[in-house]
Amino acid sequence: NKHRLGYSEVQLVQKMIDGVNALWEEDKKLQKQYFGDFPFIASTHSLVAKHVTKDKWDQLKDIKTKTSGFTLAKAIACAVQFDNQHCGIYAGDWDSYKDFAPVFDPIIQEYHGI
User: How far apart are CA 66 and CA 95, in angstroms?
Assistant: First the structure.
């Protein structure tokens, strides 16, 4: 408690925010160092976690659909951000199914039991 003396509540909250932000930046740097640009998928039990492998990511990560410029990163954003997704993938446009077929096809097949 003696470390808090002389600071206002606002200053202490700001110190906490700065500390969390510093940890966040450090974590992002370490993730990039050890995993490259392969995203951390928070929904670990989702179909995205099962079917978006490093090889598929490297193959598809730079593709943008002609219709709307949709990317694989945008398609799997829900599975990356939230930990409660079952499928975790969304097509941004019709081209998504074609351009990202190595990911979409097995997910759709497994989801529908085909």
Answer: 7
